[in-house]
Specification:
The complex is a heterodimer of chains A (116) and B (115). Chain A is mainly beta. Helix content of chain A is 0%, strand content 53%.
Chain lengths: 116, 115
């Protein structure tokens, strides 16, 4: 069975600085999807970034980028130029690739605080 | 982006009553939807997979008779908490995969408080 681990319960970053959130996972599958979701105080889950395991290139979305290390089973999220609105819970999630296997496996989350 | 709505956004009910929560995909069809439960400061716990036109698939430890799921159309799934008790108080979130299903889109959640 797949597992997702986020070892940092809480992180802090100064506004405008860069922070990296860690995520590791365990799987025997070769193809899968990885996601980072953000959950602000409103508790609405918002997709931040997605990575397909078969793609070697790291995904980027504006200030958000990932460092995907397939062999190490690591999927960290880097937030550049941190803004106050980035303060939220961040969840890493894994999804198998096969048809009909839409279930996500979530990590326990990292609470990010942004300091003014 | 895809939009998933939930109704109501919050509900307070008396112990012993039943509560229905609706999840709708507003701009796409979803043959599958997911129901999660989230306790404060914790991750999302998958409760069940809702399948349009067939029975829901429940995760281990989730009571089927307690949490009734109906996926009557391609845009609507409902979760009914039957005979609710204070321990059922929680935040309930639904989601739906779009297109090839790579990405799930989440509803805004429903806060349930059982007195």
């Amino acid at each position: 069975a797949q597992t997702v681990t986020q070892s940092q319960p809480e992180m802090s970053v100064q506004e405008a600085e860069t922070v990296t959130l860690s995520c590791t996972y365990d799987t025997s599958e070769s193809d899968y999807y990885l996601f980072w979701y953000k959950q602000p105080p409103s508790r609405q889950m918002i997709l931040v970034i997605r990575q397909e395991a078969y793609k070697q290139q790291n995904a980027t979305e504006n200030r958000f980028s990932v460092n995907f290390q397939k062999a190490a089973k690591s999927f960290s999220l880097k937030i550049s130029d941190s803004q106050l609105g980035d303060a939220a819970m961040y969840f890493c999630a894994y999804r198998s690739l096969g048809p009909g296997t839409y279930k996500y496996i979530f990590g326990t989350g990292t609470r990010l605080k942004v300091l003014a | 982006g895809a939009v998933v709505s939930q109704h109501p956004s919050w509900v307070i009910c008396k112990s012993g009553t039943s509560v229905k929560i609706e999840c709708r995909s507003l701009d796409f069809q979803a043959t599958t939807m997911f129901w999660y439960r989230q306790f404060p400061k914790q991750s999302l716990m998958l409760m069940a997979t809702s399948n349009e036109g067939s029975k829901a698939t429940y995760e281990q430890g989730v009571e089927k008779d307690k949490f009734l799921i109906n996926h009557a159309s391609l845009t609507l799934s409902t979760l009914t908490v039957t005979s609710a008790h204070p321990e059922d108080s929680s935040f309930y979130i639904c989601s739906a995969p779009r297109g090839q299903g790579e990405t799930q889109y989440f509803g805004p959640g429903t806060r349930l408080l059982v007195l």
